Amino acid sequence: MSTINSSIRQIDDQSWLIEGSLLLCRQQIPSSDLASWSDGNGGFYVLSSSSKPPSETQPLRDASEIQKVYDAGAVSAVWRVGEAFIKLKKLITPNATREHTTLQYLRNKQPLDFHIPDVYYHSDLGDRYLIVLGRVPGRTLNEIWYELSETKQQECVRRIAKICMELSTWEGETISGVDGKRLTDQFLEKSTDEMSFDPGRLLENCKKIGMDCSSSVFYHADLGPGNILLDEIDGSISIIDWETVGYVPKDWIRTKFHCSSGMDLPERAGDILPTDWRVRVARELARLGFREVVDEWVAWYGL
After folding, report:
1. How many angstroms separate the first and last alpha carbons of the chain?
2. Any alpha helices (H) in the chain, and if so which ranges?
3. In the CATH hierarchy, which top-level class contains the domain 139-301?
4. How do residues 20-71 score in pLDDT, each as one tens digit?
5. Separation between Cα atoms, residue 89 and residue 107, nearest integer Å
6. What is the pLDDT of residues 235-270, one digit of tens each?
């Protein structure tokens, strides 16, 4: 099996092989019974299973219209394919809640105050998970944060904190994904432990940290600026990357913003620190009454 970041290979100018078993083709009309989406130029990509994959394929060409936009080597990768993104990741545990399940849960909760991506296709491929997601409007805060005025920046901060507050009104029975399967938040498992993400063990860990575990509320645990898009035309917000999402103790919401450097902005010379985004959201959450247990988490995690 190929490494995750080289899982899409070129067959010819109009077709590609994914993971050795899925055939991606470009054609003039969409399919009525297969996953298909716009290529952005009047054509369509269509995805199907390949019972007889071609023996000859090549790595993606440098000038290929399919461009890798995220590369975590053997862990995960994302490609832009027309008006969609193909995401492939190695499953931390086979019992993890899948992203398409969470997105369907959100669709059932509509109307929402933000956009979420459409799901065109999803599949478990051995110990890997593939999902094809529609593009959402706007640019990520990673791209535009330093261009925004202070007023616009603070408006984004307030809106995300408000979304966190609204989502936290949805309660679950355990610390888990929306379907009761594993919530793979690696900040709630010690790196020295086997990361099973068992709900009972996550509950025990949260109690040791000192969180109020009397209830579990819904939270997107990776609300960094790369996962939030702002449409500068109509002002709408989109949120992507619904992998590490589920029910957690409410104290974890503000705490996670303090703990996770993955929510930092890209570094840039000047007075604004990379932590600016998450520090400001945490401050706004404090204003809304959210508690934090950062010092207790640091002591428990062993940093």
Report:
1. 36
2. 99-108, 141-144, 150-167, 199-209, 251-259, 276-287, 294-301
3. alpha beta
4. 999 999 999 999 999 999 999 999 999 999 888 787 899 998 888 999 999 9
5. 23
6. 999 999 999 999 999 999 999 999 999 999 999 877
Tokens matching residue 84: 């969609």
- Does the pTM exceed 0.85? yes
Contact of 207 with 213, CB cutoff 8 Å: yes
Token look-up 């640091």 returns: 298
Tell me the residue ranges of DSSP E strands in the chain.
Answer: 8-12, 15-18, 22-27, 35-38, 44-49, 58-59, 67-71, 76-81, 84-90, 119-125, 128-134, 139-140, 171-172, 216-220, 228-230, 237-239, 245-248
Residue limits of CATH 3.90.1200 in the chain = 139-301
Are 152 and 63 in contact by the 8 Å Cβ rule? The answer is no
CA distance 241 to 260: 16
